[in-house]
Amino acid sequence: MLKIAYHPIYAHPLPEGHRFPMLKYELIPAQLLHEGTIQQENLFSPEPLTEKDIITTHEEVYWLQLKNLTLPLKEQRRIGFPLNAQLVEREIRIAKGTINGALYALQNGAAFNVAGGTHHAGSNWGEGFCLLNDQAIASNYLLNNHLAKRILIIDLDVHQGNGTAEIFQNEQRVFTFSMHGAKNFPFRKEQSDLDIALPDETDDDVFLSKLKESLKFVFEKHQPDFVFYLAGVDVLESDKLGKLSLTKKACKQRDQLVFEACLKHQVPVQVSMGGGYSADIKTIVDAHCNTFRVAFDLYG
C-alpha cells in the first residue's frame, strides 16, 4: 500500500500574507479521499523528528537557535517570517514524515509527503519559508542506516534547491539535480551536481524535452538505489511567482516521466510536494493531486 505523510499541523497558519498557500495541505488529502484515489489507511501521521537526525544534516548551533527561538532577526527575515514554536514543530514533523515515507518507499516502491520539499534550508541557515531540509535529512538517514548507498535527488520545483546543493556539495553518494527558473529565487544559486536553468516562459515542449534528456543522464551516470523527488507545481503558467509557462497537462506528464524512470530502473522514490502559488487554490490542489493520481495509476 502506498503511504502518504499528513499531519494537521502542516496547515498551521503562517503570519498574515502567507496563509493562502497553506490551505492546500488540508485540501490535497481531502480531495484525494473524496474522489477515491486514496483511502484513509493510505495516510499516516508523523511524529516529531529526533535531534540526532536533525544534527546529522544541520549544524547544531543553528538547530538550537531554532529550537530555543533565538535565531537572530536578520536570519528570521531570510526565512521570511518570525519564528514560533509551532512552526518549528511543523518542520520537524514534515521531516519525520519524509523519513518515514522513505522507509515505506523501500517496501512499496513509492511514498509521499503532502508537505515537504523544504529545499532552501542549508546546513546552517533557513531561507524562503524553509527551516529544515526534509529530503536532505531523510537522505542522510538512509545513508547512515545503510538503507541506501547512492541517492538521487530530483528537484523540479521552479526554484533552485540551493540548500540541498550546499548540504551535499562534498557528498559523492548523493547526486543533486535541480531544474529551475534561471532568473527566479534564490538569486544567489548554489552549485548542484546538475543544474538546468530555464529561461522565463519556458513552455511544455522545451521543459519535457530537457527533462527526458536529463533523467536519462542522471540515472545512467549516478545509478541510484533511491530517489527523492520534489514535485513543486510552481512551474505552472498560472503561478504568481514561477515565470515559466507549463500547462497542467505538462506538469502531470513531468510527474509521469519521473515515476516511469524510477520504475524502469527499479528504484524506490519518496515524493515531497514543494511549492505552488497560482491565484486559484483549485489549480494548485488539482496539480498536486495529479502527482498522486499518476503514481497510484503506475504503482497500483
Automatic annotation (TrEMBL):
Keywords: Hydrolase. It comes from the Bacteria. Gene3D superfamilies: Histone deacetylase domain (3.40.800.20). SUPFAM superfamilies: Arginase/deacetylase. GO terms for molecular function: histone deacetylase activity; hydrolase activity. Coiled coil: none annotated. The keyword Nucleus does not apply. GO terms for biological process: epigenetic regulation of gene expression. Residues 22-288 form the Histone deacetylase domain. It holds the Pfam family Hist_deacetyl. Belongs to the histone deacetylase family. PANTHER family: HISTONE DEACETYLASE 12, HISTONE DEACETYLASE HDAC1-RELATED. This is Histone deacetylase. It comes from Pedobacter polaris. The lineage of its organism: Bacteria, Pseudomonadati, Bacteroidota, Sphingobacteriia, Sphingobacteriales.
